[in-house]
Design a protein that fits this description.
Number of strands of chain A: 23
Structural class of chain A: alpha+beta
CATH architecture of the largest domain in chain A: 2-Layer Sandwich
CATH topology of the largest domain in chain A: BirA Bifunctional Protein, domain 2
Strand content of chain A: 25-35%
Oligomer: homodimer
Chain lengths: ~475, ~475
């Protein structure tokens, strides 16, 4: 386990050296997506777009600005956000009649339109999503991808005829999260957030938390059941088969660039990033090993190899820079390229290639004729093993605690028995300094006569706790 | 030619019925991209991304907000925009120390970072682009895609060692524009804007104008040569091979969602949109013609056809809705799907399919075994003919005028002889009510003894003029 300072230094250093993002932009917490980081992020977005197509969500793009009066319609929601929003008050030389805010999330931008779009049961379910930038005026210290003021954001919003259909949607969202987590090799903990920590306006919130190398939890996504909370405020009604007018039930699924922060933190090592193959901008880097008098021939073979790899569905890159191979290894290790191939005169002669895995550092010689098949297998192995390694990290770092003191001294996630009472729960948090992530979504069996960790009354449920980002 | 009112009614009606965009959002000029319109726009973006990859531009994403002091560094630039920007003055309950503006374009966001990124000649050329939303406080009447306050925007920015290399870049930009125009079947007029109409901060500006059915010009893109104007203001210097520090030369290439407005206006007809195949979300719609007792078999054949088309690289859609085929024809004509296929029991028996072109309305019977090959050919023909038709429209609507009165009464674009003097040019505009688009980029031959249309002095150049959006 790393302490926070070690982690912070390593994390910031790697992001800078891999050139994922530039935080020298003259507004704190609003960073520039540099080409390599943006490629990784858009690869993640691509997986989400595929998932949305599979689950029949339509992509839309809503305006960034929201009029203050629309924003204020759902009382809980505005209470949750009004300390955090940026206000546009002037345009040109004019003061605006109605102030406009930069979306912190898009409920209040979308729902006035949903009220126009949904007329009858035939319009339901309505399932849409967008990938946009959102804005939150963070007062805590900022950190690339983890706590920023302009946030690259995925948000799906749905309307349903009834609670049951909305619940089905939430199951589908969890499935989508699951499939994405496999692509990112990022196992996660899914918890139903306690009442005092659910999303502003939600009936309940599921949180998706990642175990970071510091032992802390990083929330990367959340899924909300709104029931009719927003539809009543925004007048989103439909006519059912019998001509009755009913409020729709709604859900949302939000996820931010924090997924990239999690990928960096969970997989990276001393040498730099380790990119899961499915999102690596470059999956295989080829380094030609030159030899006097034979360079033309060697480069030709290297270029042929690159073509062959690209034609076989790999994202391959040939590094022809005029620097030592060692410097090249170093650069691509920082950037986390999953596989490196070295191809020199002896390899060409022997009809082999040298393949080096970024995650394990293992170096093997592979027959040229079998190279493509073996690379496919290695690429799959890398994904599987990155996932397994992270899964073991998560599972081995959930400590069952019976007392507040045990929680306090834990350096990992914590599992407790809890009476389920909100006041008691909040006191557990205060006294331990931990945050309650929530209760398991697939309810876990309690021991007979399990007692609440604080009040000692009969426990109603297990609960997860952690220090959090 | 349509008059402005006819065109406006038709244009707004088509956008609403094809559901490209919803302008009922509670801020005027900030519209919602609905799924169909967003698909078309992202298809256009995809072509631009491919062009940028081909020409080795890296994609980035810069913050939306720009601090006032950064914005104010280039005097001409701020003068051009300060009436048009939205100002963020508050965050949460706090007033900000430095006001932030929503980017109207990204020079002043990017160039402070370029100053950090560019160190030596080895960093040049720097070629980047982004596709983002920009903001302009329009006071004129808004119109979907043509005049909006939140703009879907493509912008490429480059830095070069010298003027010559920057000029090479501008040639490349024109080539990119040319290739895109083929994809969109949108011939354009390229003019060097007159001095009084160049971009704020540019040394010169090339404007890309489309001939609209009203006879007016719609500017969809522009390319700017900045020389060292911005690099001096933002301190973007490099060290050359001899250790001298020099200011970089810069160019930009900007293009907005207006391209979609042009596609709608140029290709559409009374029945609705006509989508160029390369950007049509659905290229082929299949309408099953059912017959009692045979529906299962007919649907099966229709589904097989859809699969086959998709496997052959077409974007095909099977419309299985339980409504009359005639209603389906109507719906897909509005949306401009290039090709419709009708497949019923008799066609299945005779091993044929009925293929209908959206652009010409021509209906032909094609042997099932030759269908794929013929469809590929038809799809190419549609693109070619849409382009040719629009090209003829443009070429036949440039009227050579010898007097101000002739210009005044023109209902098309106009070509004049001009002395090249700015004062005289601006008077030509005032007196004729036309805008000068500029001078031809590939200089056109003047007649011997050609005289300026206003001052009657010796003409120095041809110039294009038009009424504009």
């Amino acid at each position: 386990m790393m302490n926070e300072e070690e982690f912070s230094n390593w994390y910031n250093d790697i992001i800078e050296r891999a050139n994922l993002s530039d935080k020298r932009y003259p507004i704190k917490g609003m960073n520039v997506w540099t080409p390599y980081g943006w490629k990784v992020m858009t690869n993640i977005d691509r997986h989400m777009r595929n998932e949305m197509e599979r689950t029949k969500h339509d992509e839309v793009c809503f305006p960034l600005l929201i009029p203050e009066d629309q924003f204020a319609k759902e009382a809980e929601h505005i209470k949750g956000f009004d300390e955090q929003v940026y206000w546009v008050t002037h345009a040109g030389k004019n003061q605006l009649d109605v102030r406009l805010l930069l979306r912190p999330t898009s409920e209040t931008a979308m729902y006035p339109m949903f009220s126009l779009w949904v007329r009858s049961h035939a319009d339901l379910p309505l399932k849409i999503f967008q990938i946009v930038n959102t804005f939150r005026y963070e007062t805590k210290q900022t950190r690339s991808f983890v706590r920023v003021r302009e946030i690259h954001f995925f948000e799906a919003h749905t309307c349903h005829a009834d609670f049951e259909d909305a619940e089905r949607q939430i199951k589908e969202d969890v499935e989508v999260m699951d499939r994405l987590s496999k692509k990112l090799c990022l196992p996660y903990l899914l918890s139903k957030r306690p009442n005092w920590d659910k999303f502003a306006g939600a009936v309940y919130t599921l949180g998706v938390d990642i175990f970071m190398p510091t032992g802390k939890a990083l929330q990367i996504a959340s899924i909300h059941q709104y029931k009719e909370n927003f539809s009543k405020a925004y007048n989103i009604k439909y006519e059912d088969e019998n001509g009755n007018h009913k409020d729709v039930h709604q859900t949302t699924y939000g996820m931010s660039e924090r997924v990239l922060g999690a990928v960096i933190g969970v997989h990276g090592d001393k040498k730099g990033l380790i990119m899961p193959p499915s999102i690596a901008p470059i999956q295989i880097v080829i380094i030609p090993v030159l030899a006097k008098g034979k360079n033309e021939e060697i480069l030709k073979k290297n270029r042929e190899l690159k073509e062959e790899l690209n034609n076989n569905g790999f994202r391959a890159f040939l590094d022809e820079r005029d620097i030592r191979p060692g410097s090249k290894y170093f650069d691509w290790e920082i950037k986390g390229v999953p596989i490196r191939i070295e191809l020199g005169p002896r390899d060409i002669e022997n009809k082999v290639a040298i393949v080096v895995r970024r995650d394990t550092g293992k170096k093997i010689e592979i027959k040229r004729e079998k190279l493509i098949d073996v690379l496919k297998k290695i690429m799959d192995d890398i994904s599987t093993e990155l996932y397994k390694k992270a899964e073991a990290q998560l599972k081995n770092n959930i400590l069952s605690c019976k007392t507040i003191d045990e929680i306090k001294s834990a350096e990992s996630f914590v599992k407790i028995d809890w009476c389920g009472n909100d006041d008691c729960g909040q006191r557990i948090c205060e006294e331990s300094g931990f945050t309650m992530l929530g209760t398991p979504v697939n309810s876990e069996k309690l021991d007979k006569q399990a007692k609440c960790v604080l009040c000692n009354k009969e426990a109603a449920t297990k609960a997860y706790m952690a220090r959090t980002y």
